[in-house]
């Protein structure tokens, strides 16, 4: 059974319906008669369900108190691409996980798969809530005993951020503030923050180190930089442990094929290169458009540092393990190697076995020629290095999932393909 809680805040009353801990509270508002009947019926049905499914439905939720030896991690955005992979890894490593996501971009299907893999009590709960809603977030923090927060939830498309900047400042900067305030109010001491190489903008010197000046050139990068600054200022006066991870271009998916990347179809136009590559291989789009062949790079196309999601989530677990009160760690998470778009397209053709049509077009405004990381700091301090550095293999793993999930998480896997 899906452990599904819904938190939403209404003007004068708080409702909480948590199938996991089974509580229903509506203290202030006087319900009408019909409402009471409906409520009683719903509760009876629920009780029967819970009695049938859970032997311990009466005990308090294991998520609501700290347990020695168990680290309870709040994963915001855990229904999304990276967050779901992080939740899978944490669960595998025996962490207790609460996912908060409003499914605006993520997939309930991914959460369901995690629930099926880790059905035990006190392993994983999903709370449907909007991080922009400070009351809802506070309620979640007061009802759950978190030891750490991995804050993935965000909107994350550079192109979209230039068209709709407020959406970015709201859902990145302002929501991070809400999460921080809740952490402060409820004494949660460890934060692992998802940042991005977009905070560096277009530096002149490659590779990018953590000391490279941050001069973001689009609202996405600026919103993330502002969120970083807020975290760093706040951190100065409290004994919080902070890790800021600046990811480069994330690709790949779970090598065991349980999870994948399934963005909303309407976001395709803003999409990333791997998504476009798979869409082209599947024939959903006629081919790949490579924008810009006259950059000052070896083959004229842009150069990026592609980091496999399995490596990326490993860096989060290492960051969590090494996080120390009053300390802040800022790390680039990349392979340290740049690959050109042409190289990527060749790897994609080989990984999918499809001779994808490629169209070469003029440059797209706002793209920078070359971006790749210097990942020595994270190697030296967290003992992390990228393991999945074969582009074609990472794409092959992701393609396997894509091919068997032609409708993302919307349809069950197609057998035998
Ligand atoms: N994918 C990349 O290449 C990349 C690179 C650098 C940084 N990042 C960062 O990694 C994080 C995760 O990115 P992703 O690629 O998994 O994105 P994603 O869109 O797949 O996941 C984001 C999740 O956050 C949820 N969410 C968004 N706003 C919310 C809100 N207000 N309340 C509750 N939930 C909300 C969405 O529903 C979604 O499930 C983001 O912070 C992103 O900026 C991603
Ligand atoms: C998700 O959160 C945003 C605010 O960040 C809100 O505007 C949107 O309606 C929410 N989506 C859903 C499906 O609740
Ligand atoms: C982000 O914030 C805007 C309000 O600025 C809201 O309309 C939108 O739904 C939010 N969420 C997402 C995922 O865009
Ligand atoms: C670093 O990681 C490797 C494996 O990834 C491990 O074998 C080694 O013991 C680690 N070193 C330290 C100092 O923790």
Automatic annotation (TrEMBL):
A GO MF term: UDP-glucose 4-epimerase activity
Organism: Nyssa sinensis
Domain NAD(P)-binding as annotated: residue spans: 74-389
Protein name (record): NAD(P)-binding domain-containing protein
Classification via NCBIfam families: galE
Stretches that traverse the bilayer: 33-51
UniProt keyword annotation of Isomerase present: yes
Disordered: region residues: 1-21
Keyword Isomerase part of the UniProt annotation: yes
Keywords annotated in UniProt: Carbohydrate metabolism, Isomerase, Membrane, NAD, Transmembrane, Transmembrane helix
InterPro entries attached to this UniProt entry: NAD(P)-bd_dom, NAD(P)-bd_dom_sf, UDP_G4E
Cofactor: NAD(+)
Family: Belongs to the NAD(P)-dependent epimerase/dehydratase family.
GO BP annotations listed: galactose metabolic process
Positions with biased composition (Low complexity): 1-18
């Amino acid at each position: 059974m899906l452990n599904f809680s819904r938190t939403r805040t209404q003007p004068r009353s708080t409702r909480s319906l948590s199938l996991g801990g089974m509580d229903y509270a509506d203290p202030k508002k006087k319900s009408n008669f019909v409402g009471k009947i409906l409520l009683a019926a719903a509760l009876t049905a629920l009780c029967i369900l819970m009695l049938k499914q859970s032997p311990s439905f009466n005990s308090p939720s294991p998520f609501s108190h700290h347990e020695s030896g168990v680290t309870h991690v709040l994963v915001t955005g855990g229904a999304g691409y990276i967050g779901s992979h992080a939740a899978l890894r944490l669960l595998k490593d025996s962490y207790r996980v609460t996912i908060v996501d409003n499914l605006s971009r993520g997939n309930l299907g991914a959460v369901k798969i995690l629930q099926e893999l880790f059905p035990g009590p006190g392993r994983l709960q999903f709370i449907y809530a909007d991080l922009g809603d400070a009351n809802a977030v506070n309620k979640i923090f007061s009802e759950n005993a978190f030891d750490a927060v991995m804050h993935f939830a965000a909107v994350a498309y550079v192109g979209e951020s230039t068209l709709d900047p407020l959406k970015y400042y709201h859902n990145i900067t302002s929501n991070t503030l809400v999460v921080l305030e809740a952490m402060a109010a409820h004494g949660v001491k460890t934060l692992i923050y998802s940042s991005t190489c977009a905070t560096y903008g277009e530096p002149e010197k490659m590779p990018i180190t953590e000391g490279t000046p941050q001069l973001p050139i689009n609202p996405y990068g600026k919103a993330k930089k502002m969120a970083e600054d807020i975290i760093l200022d706040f951190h100065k006066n409290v004994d919080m442990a902070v890790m800021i991870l600046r990811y480069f271009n994330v690709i790949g998916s779970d090598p065991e094929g349980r999870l994948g990347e399934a963005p909303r179809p309407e976001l395709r136009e803003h999409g990333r290169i791997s998504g476009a590559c798979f869409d082209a291989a599947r024939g959903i789009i006629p081919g790949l458009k490579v924008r810009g062949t006259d950059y000052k790079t070896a083959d004229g196309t842009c150069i990026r540092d592609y980091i496999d999601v399995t490596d990326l989530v490993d860096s989060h677990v290492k960051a969590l393990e090494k996080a120390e009160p009053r300390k802040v760690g800022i790390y680039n998470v990349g392979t340290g190697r740049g690959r050109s778009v042409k190289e990527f397209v060749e790897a994609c053709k080989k990984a999918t076995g499809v001779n994808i049509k490629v169209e070469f077009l003029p440059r797209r405004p706002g793209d920078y020629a070359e971006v790749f990381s210097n990942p020595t700091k994270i190697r030296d301090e967290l003992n992390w290095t990228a393991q999945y550095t074969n582009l074609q293999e990472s794409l092959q793993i992701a393609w396997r999932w894509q091919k068997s999930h032609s409708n993302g998480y919307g349809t069950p896997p197609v057998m035998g393909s």
